[in-house]
Every structure is written in structure tokens, then in C-alpha cells.
């Protein structure tokens, strides 16, 4: 009988668990899916029950809608299942899921280590509010090894943030090595695991707080913004949930319901998009206009061996570096010529996207020169042969 906790044993395959986790069981009139529970006020039969209500869910106050409701809890359970952690907090956007853990663990006088390849808005937070609050951030080479990380940690370093592979440039990080160095000095290890989804198990690789933009493949249809932060200990949960509550963080139950709907088909979409992504990436890497394709699953990727060691698969987002003879204006012309690729941010939906990335990304730990002008490609659920034909006619426009 499917119920909310049937999947907790984690002995079933991923698709089985994604079919059974976070379901309504038989207690919602027998309907398969949890309903959308909207609400601010939570009623109790009497005052004593209201006092005890505070103990119901995770010993947090469950006396008001801001603490979430049954729709949130179902999604929290599914995300904890995907990440292999104990508890997940759902937030209104992926960026909120980046911001809340950083704000939860950093205070005035602390030092934070960020990979140079971190998601741009995470860098903005470090350079904006966090800097104003007296938190200093150092950006490090994402390919740092254990000794290199140990050398970067200062007495006041509190958080070692990671994102693997990195935004736009797709460097795979040696998370276990980084986590060993961080934990030896008492730092929290955070990771943006949006690209890895369920292909990277954060807690078995030393991560303390794992972040996902559910906006991407979990939502899967470019119609919802949502994020999650997952932890694997009761102590970390108290810090994370406490910060979320203090900051008044909340996600719409309608959006949670859309994410629950998305997650049921996620693995089918992901498998198809992974295969199409690799097919298109391979085709592009053989083109004379292309210097290299930044896709960790391709054997020529500089950290392919790390990816193979730590990941069980890939998603369909990757980067392309064009030959240095091209200018960024040539890349714009290529992108504008594409018929099947939308020109826009985000990824993980059913539709293909392409954007030029040169000039859009900040790098301070490295030179920021990756050999030529760059683009980022997201492969959707279209037929790969059609996508390749479209890219081929687009490449013909590179030289004007
Ligand atoms: C998109 C994205 C986010 C933020 O997600 P939003 O829901 O758009 O705020 C965070 N991290 C990574 C790596 C992303 O690509």
C-alpha cells in the first residue's frame, strides 16, 4: 500500500521511489495524490491541543500556515528521498534555497569560501547583503584539491560552498576531498546539487546542506519556481528550519503540487534528456567550429574521471566553447538563427534553450578565458535529429 513513508527503506530503484514517495496513502479519501492545502490559520479543538500541536511536525511550531502544510510535507519527503537526506525544506525559489542556508550559518566576522564557478546570483548575495553584514567571501578555483582547500581555510571560515559541476563552465569538483578539508576545520559544506539531481548523493560524499532549484527538472515544465535545502542531521535541521522561519520563507502549495506532479515523470524525462544531451554534445564536439564541449559525461572533459567516480548520470545542460577565431557577435548570430532553441535563462524544462554566456559570467579566481566565446545549451524532449539539424543550419551562420 503506497503511503508517505513506504519508500523510506531506500531499497527500491529510483523510479519506484519517485512513484511512491510523498503520496496521500488512503487517508485522503483514497485519492492517489495529496491535495493542495492552502491556509494561514491552523485550528485546534482546544488550547491544550494547540500547545501540543507545536510538537507534531519536526518539533517545530505547526500552529500557522507559514510552517507549511500537507502539500509542502509531501514534497519535502520526496526531496529528502531524492537527496538521500533526513529532512528537506521547500523554498519559494532555487535562489532562496541558496540564500537561506548561507544566512543561517554565516554571521558578522565569518569567512565564506565560494567556487569561482558558483551560480551568479549566489555570488551577488555574497557581494551584496552578506558583505554588508560583515561576512567576507573568497572565490576559489573549483578544481581545488584537498591540500589546496586546507590552505584556503582561515580560522574564521565557517562555510565551504560548492557547486558541481559549476554554472556555465561545468567544472566537476572533488567534493569528498573538499569536505574532508572543510570538516577537519569545523566548516559546514554546502552544495548546489541542481545539475546532479539524483545522480549525485550529497550526504555520502561529505555534504552537510544540499541545495536544489526544483524549478529545473523536478518542475520540468518551465512553469514553476521552487527550491529545496536538505540536511542529514537533526542539529542541522534546527539551524536551517530556524533560519527559514525567521526569514518568513514560504512556498506556494500550488507550486509544491506542480513539483509533486513533475517528480512522478522526472526520471523518464531525465533519462531521455540525458541521452539526447550526450548525443547533441558529441555531435557538437566533432564540429570544426567548436573548440570544446563542456559536458562532464564526455571522456575529454578535464574532470570526467571525477564525474565517473561520483555521479551515476548526467542531465542535459552543457556548455560550448567556439573556436577563438569567432567573436561573441558570431555566437549571437548562431543562436538567433536557431528555430528550435528558445533564447532564455533557466533549464530543466521539456524544451531546448540556448544562450551566449561570454560576458554574462564573472570569474575572479581564474582568468575567465576559456579559449573562445561560449554558449550554454539545454536539450529538451524534442527529437535529437531535429535539434542537430537545427544546430547545423545555425552553425552555418556563425561566419555571417
Ligand atoms: C536556476 C538555478 C538556481 C536558482 O533557481 P531559481 O528557482 O531560478 O531561483 C540555483 N542554482 C543553479 C545552479 C541554477 O541553475
Descriptive terms for the model:
single chain, globular, Aspartate Aminotransferase, domain 1, binds pyridoxal-5'-phosphate, 400 residues, alpha/beta, seven-stranded mixed β-sheet, 14% strand, 11 strands
Could you walk me through the main structural features you see in this protein, from its secondary elements to its overall organization?
- The strands form two sheets. The chain has a seven-stranded mixed β-sheet, sandwiched between helices.
- The N and C termini lie far apart (61 Å).
- It is an alpha/beta fold.
- Strand 2, helix 5 and strand 3 form a beta-alpha-beta unit.
- It has a domain of 130 residues: Aspartate Aminotransferase, domain 1.
- Helix 1 packs antiparallel against helix 9, helix 4 packs parallel to helix 5 and helix 9 packs across helix 12.
- It has twelve helices and eleven strands.
- The structure holds pyridoxal-5'-phosphate.
- The site of pyridoxal-5'-phosphate (PLP) has 13 residues, from helix 4.
- Pyridoxal-5'-phosphate binds next to helix 4.
Counting helices, strands and paired strands, the structural category is alpha/beta
CATH-defined superfamily of the domain at 266-395: Aspartate Aminotransferase, domain 1
3D shape? globular
- Beta strand %: 5-15%
Helix segment tally: 12
Q: Provide the CATH architecture of the domain at 266-395.
A: Alpha-Beta Complex
Could you describe the largest sheet, including whether it forms a barrel? Answer: 7 strands, mixed
Query: Which percent range fits the helix content?
Result: 25-40%
Bound molecule kinds, no repeats: pyridoxal-5'-phosphate
Instruction: Using the coordinates above, name the CATH class of the domain at 266-395.
Output: Alpha Beta
Whole-angstrom Rg: 22 Å
Order of helical and strand elements: HHHEHEHEHEHEEEHHEHEHEEH
The order of strands across the largest sheet is 1-7-6-5-4-2-3
Q: What is the arithmetic mean of pLDDT?
A: 94
CATH fold title of the domain at 266-395: Aspartate Aminotransferase, domain 1
Report the end-to-end length measured between terminal Cα atoms: 61 Å
Strand tally is: 11
Keywords: Lyase, Pyridoxal phosphate
Cofactor: pyridoxal 5'-phosphate
GO molecular function: cysteine-S-conjugate beta-lyase activity; pyridoxal phosphate binding
EC number: 4.4.1.8
